[in-house]
Write a structure and sequence with these properties.
CATH class of the domain at 9-30 and 37-204: Alpha Beta
Largest sheet: 13 strands, mixed
Strand content: 15-25%
Number of helices: 17
CATH architecture of the domain at 9-30 and 37-204: 3-Layer(aba) Sandwich
Oligomer: single chain
Distance between the termini: 69 Å
Strand order of the largest sheet: 2-1-11-10-12-13-14-15-16-20-19-18-17
Structural class: alpha/beta
Radius of gyration: 23 Å
């Protein structure tokens, strides 16, 4: 093999920060905070404070390969940790506060973190859990210097720590495959599993994420990530924004409709993203107040399938383009994005929307997709055949943190546990999670299709379908719906609404009006629903 004669500079997160500070030095970063005024600075300021943070980490004794935990919201201080920790060669474990306390303790201990940086909101939580995390040597409160430290346990102040440090740092060069972020996925059984992103995978993911066929960013965009920064690094948006010179608006933990609406209008937000429940609340807010969506023009929604009614409302009433995104912690998380192609666009807006609102997305550079049958045989990409979805690529997991065994097969394919179709244009459609597919009388029923139809019924906030035991048919679907505040919907109305689009034998066996529980990442908690309603049809 004839070797190329090009420079071989490692792909490092510190390189993204340096670039943003030079090429987009005056682009603004705006951050809400816990009990503090809004913070404003630029990418140049981010670089300086991240350098100060890196020095502070060094003085705390944090070295290359050490793990640091953040228990924090979407704020500028958390953003500084995103750059300072991996930039200095350490690993940032973004702890998920939505985990159960037992799971949270497990992840911090499993990560082996030596320092924990936290927002004030989490003082009561850490007061209860601190004794169960003996390896943590340093607790650092992410707050200004005037904030009183918690009296419950010894804590250092973040601003005081970095104030005495230099605003420049000699970012070290090291192997681009060195660990950068440790994100835990809750899964469905057993303890959470750690996915250890590398510097290389994060940078490649960020470059690809901003492409025109993906999120299509430019320096004219103002991005507000409503994906939590502790969840798969907010889908990589902090790095995608920096590479493309986008203004960045961080909403802290204030994800209600009114708070997001205020930021969109005041800061000129053009793009945002998050799970469907956030945008259900936002639509409810603008509907009740009669206000406009301001500068908002594009949304990317993932975590679960986008209800078509939501996409139609944003598009037709407010002029906001909605794209679906599918991914998982194990894919950093971008897997596919529902971006149009010239061929589909040429067929007209209705045909285009039919595709991008009903498919999770199309194949992106850097992620290979295939579907297989139960025996592992490849299935055709014809949009009809459905099978086990498998992925591979440079930002897809190879093995879980501290695991002795690989998470992929001999050819590098990772089984996502999703059931999907892929068409000839590369558009992938999730028909169900393998654990959520309902088998009734020997035939398969897709819970997602029923949920999307039910969610479009006026008054419905969230719709969930699970399969439960049935004495005759083995398993039957039941529908649980949570209503918007002040709304009333009857079983007869739901049944009539579903009858227009749902196959008769797919019709839910029971209709239940109740709160729909969510997982730590904002998805419908079907595991909990199956447990609650497991005997609901037992005597039918």
């Amino acid at each position: 093999m004839l070797q190329g004669l090009m420079q071989n500079a490692p792909l490092l997160i510190s390189g993204v920060l340096r670039y943003a500070a030079l090429a987009h030095d005056d682009r603004e970063i705006v951050s809400r905070l816990v009990d503090e005024p809004i913070w404003r600075y630029t990418y140049k300021g981010l670089h300086a404070r991240s350098a100060q943070c890196a020095h502070a980490l060094k003085h705390l004794g944090i070295g290359e390969g050490d793990r640091v935990t953040s228990l924090a919201w979407n704020t500028h201080r958390h953003l500084e940790l995103f750059y300072a920790v991996p930039g200095a060669g350490a690993v940032l474990h973004t702890a998920n506060p939505r985990f159960s306390e037992e799971q949270l303790v497990y992840t911090v201990n499993h990560a082996g973190s030596r320092a924990l940086f936290f927002d004030r909101s989490f003082v009561p939580l850490l007061t209860r859990l601190r004794a169960k995390m003996p390896a943590v040597e340093h607790y650092v409160l992410l707050a200004d210097e005037t904030s009183a430290p918690p009296s419950e346990f010894p804590t250092q102040n973040y601003e005081a720590l970095i104030a005495r440090e230099a605003a420049t740092f000699a970012w070290p060069a090291f192997d681009e495959n060195a660990g950068a972020f440790l994100c835990y996925t809750s899964g469905t059984t057993g303890d959470p599993k750690g996915v250890l992103y590398s510097n290389r995978s994060v940078v490649l993911h960020a470059i690809a994420g901003g492409l025109s066929g993906a999120l299509d960013f430019s320096a004219f965009d103002c991005i507000m990530p409503c994906q939590s920064m502790y969840h798969a690094t907010a889908w990589g948006l902090p790095f995608i924004a920096a590479i493309n010179g986008c203004k960045l608006v961080l909403p802290c933990d204030k994800m209600d409709g009114a708070s997001l609406h205020e930021l969109i209008h005041k800061e000129g937000v053009t793009f945002s993203g998050g799970v469907p429940t956030i945008w259900t609340m936002y639509l409810d807010h603008v509907s009740r107040t009669g206000e406009s969506v301001g500068t908002l023009r594009r949304l990317v929604i993932g975590g679960s399938a986008v209800p078509r009614a939501m996409a139609e409302t944003f598009d037709k009433k407010y002029g906001v383009s909605v794209r679906q995104l599918w991914g998982m912690t194990e894919t950093s998380p971008i897997g596919v994005i529902a971006s149009p192609t010239p061929e589909i666009a040429a067929a007209g807006p209705d045909a285009l929307n039919d595709i991008i609102w009903t498919r999770q997305g199309r194949m992106q550079f850097g992620i290979e997709l295939k579907i297989t049958d139960a025996d592992g045989n490849d299935l055709p990409h014809d949009g009809v055949a459905s099978g086990n979805l498998k992925v591979r690529g440079p930002w897809t997991i190879e093995r879980y943190f501290r695991s002795e065994t690989s998470a992929v097969d001999a050819d590098g394919w990772f089984d996502t546990s999703d059931i999907a179709t892929i068409d000839s244009a590369g558009f992938m459609r999730i028909t169900d999670r393998s654990k959520d597919v309902i088998k009734s009388g020997g035939e398969w029923i897709s819970s997602i299709d029923i949920e999307n139809t039910a969610a479009a019924c006026p008054g419905v906030k969230t719709a969930a379908v699970v399969g439960v035991y049935h004495p005759k048919w083995e398993e039957r679907p039941i529908l649980i719906v949570e209503l918007h505040v002040g709304r009333t919907v009857t079983e007869e109305q739901l049944r009539a609404h579903l009858a227009l689009k749902v196959t008769k034998w797919w019709m839910p066996e029971a209709f239940i009006i109740a709160d729909v529980p969510l997982t730590s990442t904002g998805k419908i908690d079907k595991k909990k629903l199956r447990e609650i309603y497991k005997d609901h049809l037992r005597h039918s």
